[in-house]
């Protein structure tokens, strides 16, 4: 089966794992958050991987960089939302620490992609 270029990106691979963790985590949120925080977290986490995929298809380094920056911004949105989730006691301190660790690793890889395009 053909593999698209984005599928080879470490950032995209890590983002898939991150999305899965967000979905699993939010499945335990209060039902009244289904259309609030749960929806926001899920959409923002998917946006991370989607922007990485879209950016990889762009022909210019400027366009690629823009989409990778969008991906980073979506990651920051998720980090903010998991902090709020912790404040609201929807997630445990341990879950917050784990997700922040995953987010930190992902941010470094995405920033590496952006930096690699600055020199182009």
Task: Tell me what you see in this structure.
This is Four helix bundle protein. Pfam families: 23S_rRNA_IVP. InterPro entries: 23S_rRNA-intervening_sequence, 23S_rRNA_IVS_sf. The protein has 120 residues and is mainly α. It has one domain: 23S rRNA-intervening sequence (de novo design (two linked rop proteins)), CATH 1.20.1440.60. Helices cover 75% and strands 0% of the residues. It contains four helices and no strands. α1 runs antiparallel to α2, α1 (10-26) packs antiparallel against α4 (93-118) and α2 packs antiparallel against α3 (61-87). The longest helix has 27 residues, at 61-87. The protein is elongated. The termini are far apart. 30% of the residues are buried. The mean pLDDT is 95.
What is the CATH superfamily?
A: 23S rRNA-intervening sequence
- What is the succession of H and E elements? HHHH
Shape: elongated
Q: Termini, distance in Å?
A: 31 Å
Number of strands: 0
Question: Which helices and strands occur, and which strands form pairs?
Answer:
Elements: H1 10-26, H2 37-56, H3 61-87, H4 93-118
Helix pairs in contact: 1-2, 1-4, 2-3, 3-4
Task: Name the features.
120 residues, mainly alpha, de novo design (two linked rop proteins)
């Amino acid at each position: 089966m053909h593999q698209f270029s984005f599928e080879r990106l470490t950032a995209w691979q890590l983002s898939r794992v991150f999305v899965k963790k967000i979905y699993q985590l939010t499945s335990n949120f209060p039902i009244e958050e289904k259309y609030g925080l749960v929806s926001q977290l899920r959409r923002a986490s998917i946006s991370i991987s989607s922007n990485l995929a879209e950016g990889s298809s762009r022909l210019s380094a400027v366009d690629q960089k823009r989409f990778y920056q969008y991906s980073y911004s979506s990651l920051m949105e998720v980090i903010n939302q998991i902090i709020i989730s912790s404040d609201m006691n929807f997630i445990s301190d341990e879950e917050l620490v784990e997700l922040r660790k995953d987010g930190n690793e992902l941010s470094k890889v995405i920033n590496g992609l952006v930096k690699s395009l600055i020199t182009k």
